[in-house]
Amino acid sequence: MQNALIACRSITYAQRAARVLNNAGIRASIRRLPVDLTDTGCAQAVRVEENQLHRAVTMMRNAGFTIRYTFCEQENGKVTPCR
Amino acid sequence: MPLIYLDNAATTLHKPPEVGQAVLKAINTCGGAGRGGHEAAQKAAEALFSCREEAASLFRMEGPERVILTSNATHALNIAIKGLAKPGKNVLISGYEHNAVVRPLKSLERLMIKTVTLTTPLFEPEAVLQAFGEALDDSVGLCVCTHMSNVFGFVFPVEKIAALCKERGVPMIVDASQAAGLLPIDGDLYPYWCMPGHKSLYGPQGTGLLLIPPGGSLPPFMEGGTGGDSRSLGMPEYLPDRLEAGTHNAPGAAGLAAGLRFVRKNGYDYADSLLKKAVETVVGIRGIRVYARLSCQKALFSFTVDGKDSETIAAALSEREIAVRGGLHCAPLAHISAGTDAQGTVRVAFSYTNRPADVTALARALQAIVTA
Fold first, then answer.
1. Whether B33 and A42 lie within 8 Å, measured CB to CB
2. pLDDT (tens digit, 9 = 90+) per residue, A26-54?
3. What stretch of H or E contains B323?
């Protein structure tokens, strides 16, 4: 199962988002994003299974989170923007 | 003889056991929160977030990101006061403020920020409310009020004062140093709330909280690394990072989270019966004047002894293994307002570990001291 990453603006927001998603039954953890993927430097993301990405994004938006970017983890380990 | 500790308004000495356990666990497992993706960094981040969540739950806040972790209440007050006071405008304060409020304000005089102190009688909450109402005019840019006097336990009507401030568009800061853990606090109400972790929230020393109201904003008090947005040379705009530069006290936050959880589960009213018993007992000792009005007082009281300095009485009690605090309690303003500034007072403050037997021992010791 491949995973997706939802960028968050801080570790605290990522933690809060992960709490919201886990409480809703979407397994979520926190990861740091590769530096070259962001325009700001060090950044945090919530990691969910890719088939849960749409639901997770909707749920986070409904909870008031601003989604900056979403990324998908490829089988070769690369992380690329989700299409 | 075991120590009877009644100086809980300074620092609670006896914490719930889970507080120490949490600190120990964190100090052995936590790295730098937000500074890496490894397990130790994640554990530190979890410790901080757990503390914010516990605080948000106890103080009925929607957003844990508006819980700012500080070193103590003084740190929180400095961030809030220096961020909100406006040059050319006055700051209105009660006559019972601690030096943690008065000294930062004194330092702002160079910026043409004048402090106006309201003088009201002790244990007169209606007079306080009226005084704030009358003084809140266009010259005022900020109000600061203690929630509970650290000298007398006098509870201030801060929610009503906050309503006045909101109506007139004046920001308000509440010094909840004594009230946090003893009185309900609504962190989503209008004011900025400042509090230590080490008093009635039962956290370790070196912890504190600043609760930012919804929509509230403060400039950074200091600048530095936050673990995010590293390419930017400016501090982030978002909370809590904007106000939390530098590595956090993760063990402290872990201990404070345990303390907050304890308060949330055990409630606020454990000290009421002890305070009542103590006041009723000590008031009957000849030569002692007790400052009390239980209808607007919580968890602590002060007294004076005819012809004797408060520090002398505190030292005599200490020799009998009873820890209280004499002097001015870093709040000379409160003593001036109450007329006790000449000799100070002896303060007795309870925590959840105190028992009626402690009050009996205090009364017996005081009887012996005043008749010696």
1. no
2. 999 999 998 888 888 888 999 999 999 99
3. strand B322-323
